Amino acid sequence: MPLRRYAHLTLWALGLLTALAVFFVAQLRFNYNFNDFYPAGDPDLDYYEQYADRFGNDNDYVLLGLEAPAGQTVFEPDFLVRLDSLTRFLAGRPHVLRVSSPTNAVNPVVEGPGVFNLPYLHPREPARRALDSALIYRTPGLVGNLISRDARAATILFQTSPNLSKPPGDSLLAALRRELGRQGFGESEYHLAGKQVAQSVFVDRLQGELVLFMSLSVLLVTGLLWLTFRTWWGVVLPLVVVLGAILWGLAVMSAFGVSIDLMTALLPVMLFVVGMSDTIHLITRYITELGYGAEKKTALLVAMRESAFGSGLSALTTSIGFFSLMTSSIRPIYNFGLFTGIAVLLTFVLSFTLLPAMLALLKKPQLRVPREQGHSWDGVLGRLFRQVLARRHWVVGISAVVLVLSVASASTIRINSALLDDLSKNDPVKLDFRFFEEQFAGVRPFELALQPGPGRTVFDLEVLRETEQIENYLQKSYGLNFVASPVTIIKSVRKALNGGLVEEYRLPADEAELARLLRKVKLFRQKPEFRALALPDASQGRLTGRMADVGSVRIHGLNTGLHQFLRTAIDPTVLRTRLTGSANLIDKNNENLSRDMITGMTLDIVMVTIIVLALFRSLRMTVVVLIPNLVPILIVAGVMGLAGVSMKVSTSIIFTIAFGIAVDDTIHFMSKLKLVLGKEDNLFRAVRKTYLMAGKAVVVTSLILVGGFSTLLFSSFDGTFYVGFLIGLTLLFGVVAELTLLPILILWLYKHEPKAIIKEVVVP
């Protein structure tokens, strides 16, 4: 079949597939559900979902903190009136189920058959200010929860609909901000925190940053392609191929019913950078053949034949790097690895169908005349090759020293994360969350399920006393700043039956008194805050609270102490407990992080080793491929340890991705060396010629990769910043290892058997 006809048929078929891809991409939607980051398939997740069905989610709330004007306290009449207006405003908003505020907090008093709810604060009665403030400071659970200890700030907590999605959540927050402005609160005088706030900010920023990253990547790659090829088609054709691959990859994701989330949103940027490798290797080889005087058709066929093996193998190893992320129990990471890996393979398909078809339809390019003076690629690479071999002992020695230091530094890396770890310490959102930790109970939720022993209820006196012991431990030793449980209900009822006196807020002394209290509990069961602490039949209960976000390392130690206390101090025949909640599930992610990372990295290395062994059937070749690519990984791990970068969900994906990408250049180099040795008997000359032939493509692709990942440095998220920085650093060290260690290893391991490189290859 004539080449041009084949090209037309190829473009026609690919055009139909692209039209189908556009149809699927048009149906893609963003998924804003943070709950997807819980460990999928974990028994604790199943338990929490059942627990949430009974008592509600522990993170469906928003905290609004309000600072009093300078020199005033929250008990000033004007401030209280505005606070009360905001409370009433929120109570009337859609998707708001309950509002807790200093101005609607009440002190219940039982008189006769009814309950009288006496407010603690009287905003419109200034004369009662002194008495109100005194009562509040004497009442447990108000100071540090609704009013700061220094009385300079107050907080409103409003419960939202379960798993409120982003659009209505954004509308609620926007309405609240407008009302805050109307009430005269400046942006510096109020603070917002909660899952809904973080969800809104994270997604909005991510969408904006992706546009920025793609724009910077396109500009950077366009510039590098122009500097490399100095032709319009050398810029446009790779861009068309890679953008087509991104479109296909997103279409596959849509066809499987997967939405764009916080991880898969990185797919376009990641693929745009990674997908350039195959096109650059193919175009570089095509231009080289044209430079040797070959006809266009011959040059294209030779370029495809000689590049297909290395590009196919590198696409396979890169995709394996992404596929290995499927070992993660976190669904967004799993999907990111799966669909980015598929998209990498699709890029290879387009590189060897769409790109050759477009080259075939273009006229034979007019090659640029080399400069008579100045530095050429061959001149620079030739001098570098000579210097590397002349100082090979220094290269190996320095590499060994750096490697030992890196391993020592890498051993100091800790797995540690906090709820807002991806935000910089001076980020406004993080500062708002910190405000609630410094002034109030904190933002990290705590949940402990309470299961009474057989034949008991959560309101049995022994069960209540055991629960109170747990509360005391959590407040004194664990760091809980606010706590509520069935004990809260009984103490509140006792206080209400005794005229609302603060000193009566305690458990009953005996069974007879408890029986009298339980007859009145039904008066309080309809209160939402009490209904969420015990089931109607009292068969199960909930101990809930809030604390500062102290990080996963500190929490692990606290949980160890808590479990020890529960085993030794609590009678399991009276009360059994189970730690649960959204924060606990995030902690489980961190516990699994090390395992998932090691599993993924091991799988990546093993699969690459198997592929190399299957194709080259040589342990020596395996060593040649692995060493130059494992060394940069270990060095970057050392950089992480030296810089104090913790291992967390966002940074755990770095090593598997970087290894899968970095090994590409080695495979391209070895596949070209095999072809050269078919015509060249001398190993030294063959390695040098391969170094000159492959060196340009290796350097250019590495620059594009490093530059592309460097665009992530502009992210406001620390996790994304470190992904860009550390992967870019790995690839930078990788190209250095490629140009230094690789030729030294080949010449050392094959110095007596140069033709073994050919014999050890199974020609595809």
UniProtKB/TrEMBL annotation:
Q: Where in the cell is it found?
A: Cell membrane
Q: Which domain of life is it from?
A: Bacteria
**Membrane topology category:** Multi-pass membrane protein
One GO term describing the cellular component: plasma membrane
Q: Which parts of the sequence belong to the SSD domain?
A: 239-361
Regions that span the bilayer: 210-229, 236-260, 266-287, 308-330, 336-362, 393-413, 597-616, 623-643, 649-670, 691-715, 721-750
Keywords in alphabetical order: Cell membrane, Membrane, Transmembrane, Transmembrane helix
Q: Which family does it belong to?
A: Belongs to the resistance-nodulation-cell division (RND) (TC 2.A.6) family. MmpL subfamily.
PANTHER family found in the cross-reference section? MEMBRANE PROTEIN MJ1562-RELATED, MEMBRANE PROTEIN YDGH-RELATED
Protein name, as recorded: SSD domain-containing protein
The source organism is: Hymenobacter actinosclerus
